[in-house]
Amino acid sequence: MHSLPVFLRLDGQPVILTGEGEAAEAKRRLLERANARIVAEDDADARIAIVSDGDAAVAARLRARGVLVNATDNPALCDFTLPAIVDRDPVLIAIGTGGASAGLAKALRQRIEALLPARLGALASALAQARAAIRARWPDPGDRRRAIDAGLAPGSLLDPLREDAADLLPVWLDEARPQGGRLVTIRLLSPDPDDLTLRAARLLGEADHVYHAVDVPRAILDRARADASRVAADAPPEDAGDGLTLFLSLG
Hints:
Elements: E1 14-18, H1 22-33, E2 37-39, E3 48-51, H2 56-64, E4 68-71, E5 84-88, E6 91-95, H3 102-115, H4 120-129, H5 131-137, H6 141-152, H7 169-175, E7 182-188, H8 198-206, E8 209-212, H9 218-221, E9 229-232, E10 244-250
Parallel strand pairs: 1-2, 1-3, 3-4, 7-10, 8-9, 8-10
Antiparallel strand pairs: 5-6
C-alpha cells in the first residue's frame, strides 16, 4: 500500500491554493464543497496546500515550511494525492492511483457511480440514528457486528444496493436474530489474491477467526478484517467458536 487513505475534516480550516485557470477553479470547487477556508501561499496557519499548476518552486517553498502539498501532475512533489470521489453524503468513496493515472481513477469512479443507489447516504444516516437501538438489541460488540454484517449482506434487508434499504431498517431491527457460530472451509484457487472468488473475498471481510495452512500467503490473509484472529493450522478447528470461522487451504 503506497499511501494511507484518510478523510480530512476541513470545515473552516485554512488550505492554501495556488495557480490559476481551469485546474485551480476545479480544486477551488472541491475545497468549497469541503467547507475549507481558501488562503494564499503566505498564510502562516495553513498546514495543507494544493499547487494547482504543479509549480515545483512553490511546492518546494511550502514543503520547506512543513506544509503538506499536492502538486498537480507532479507526483514526486506530492505529500498527498486527491482521489476521484463518489459522493453519497455521508458516504464517501475515494479512488486513488498514487498519481499514476487520474484517468483510471475517473473511469473507476464512473463505474462505481452507476452501481450505487442515490439513497445510499440515507441508509448510513438511518444506521447512525439507530445506533442506540442497535446497541440495546445486541449489547455484545461481537454479536452486534455480526448482526450488522448479516443485515448488510447481498440480498438482505439492508443490502446497500437496495434503494429501499433505509426504509427497511426498522423491519430489520424487529426481525433480525442472533448469528450462531459457523465454520466455512475455503480451498483457494491459487496463491494470488486476485484469484479470490467474490464469495471468498466477502467471507474474509466478515470472518472473526481465520485458520489457514502455512502456505497460504500473507497477501491473501491481509484481505481479512484487521481484528480477525489468524492461526496457522493443518486442519479446521474442532470447535469453531463464536461468529464466523474460516479454514483456508491451497488447492
